[in-house]
Each structure stands twice: as C-alpha cells, then as structure tokens.
Amino acid sequence: GQNIDQPTEMTATEGAIVQINCTYQTSGFNGLFWYQQHAGEAPTFLSYNVLDGLEEKGRFSSFLSRSKGYSYLLLKELQMKDSASYLCAVRGDNYGQNFVFGPGTRLSVLP
Amino acid sequence: DSGVTQTPKHLITATGQRVTLRCSPRSGDLSVYWYQQSLDQGLQFLIHYYNGEERAKGNILERFSAQQFPDLHSELNLSSLELGDSALYFCASSVGGGPDISGYTFGSGTRLTVV
Question: According to the model, what pLDDT value does residue A1 have?
C-alpha cells in the first residue's frame, strides 16, 4: 500500500522559518514533490527531490532522506502570502499509476 | 495561466442530475489526470488517460466516467449526483505517462455544488 503523512495544521509568524514534514511508505520511489495550494485554487509545483539531500530555491528548500522515507519543506522569511496548504506527493512504481498526494499541511502565517 | 483549461469554473446542480466537466491539457501534453478534492480533504485520484487510452483508475465511483478525445481534451461525466459529490474537481496534465520533474500542471478546477 501507499501512505503519506503530514501534520494537519501549522502556525508561524511573519518573518520566521517553518519546517513542514512529510513521511511516506510507497511501492517503490521515483521522486518526491512539494506543491503549494491556496484555498480554492489549483496546486502549484514548488520542488522535486529524487536524491538525498537539500534542494534550495529562494526562500523555499526541500530535503529528502530516502532511507528514512522522510522529507521536509523549509520556508524562510515567511510572508502572509505563504498562508496555504502544502502538499507532499510521491511518485512510486509505474509512474502515473503511483503518484500519491499526502493530505496536506495547512499553514497559517500570523502578523 | 497554467495552460490547462477547465470549464466550467462553477457548477450548481440538483441531486440525481448528470454533469460533464471539461479539460483541455497544456499544449504538447498527452496525459490527463482527474482529481477530486472535497472540503478540507486531500486530492483523491480518479482516473488517468494517456493519448486517448485509459491508463489507471483510482477511487472512481461507478457513477463517474471519463474519456479523452482525439484532440486530447478530456471530459469527466458525473451522474446520479449526490450531495457528497460536491467538491473541487481538478484536471492535470503532463507530457508523458506520469509526472515529469515538475510534476503535473493543474487546471484551476471546477467547483461542483450539488443541492
């Protein structure tokens, strides 16, 4: 089976740093993706990790440990517009047949 | 604009009715995926088409069906609608038969309300 876990909600303060964790158990592994989704809008791609380590993209970074089935998304210098849900998704075996989204973490950024 | 077009944006209909949601993938993309997202829920995979052929089925109800046409646009048909079918329905596309390194590209969704 396939299982992806994320915290349901998180709260942080504007200007701070927040880390959103994702743990997964999937049939095979061919990459982990992070998406941002504002309420009522489409998910938008943030990052992709297929090898262990940290990928940095401006204020956002994503980390992967394949041996631990673990990833995190790090958001720095939080802004109010970062209030959104953050979805972790894993590409397992058979590519399209096994692209599973986690439940998402709703982040609220407070002034 | 992501390049994936979904129509209509909003739809309100009564229980027992049938509706059709339409999706045009990004130019050059051969795959279309349909997802359902109920209020405060995650994205639930419904079905995947690649170049006109069904590739994978998720938790799609028997009352729901889809197809992809020769011009690669896709339609999701929902029939005998129930209140619980109220949700956001997203279409996504990709070039190949699965997510590429930028994952999927999502359309802006159709918000279906069943009353």
Answer: 63
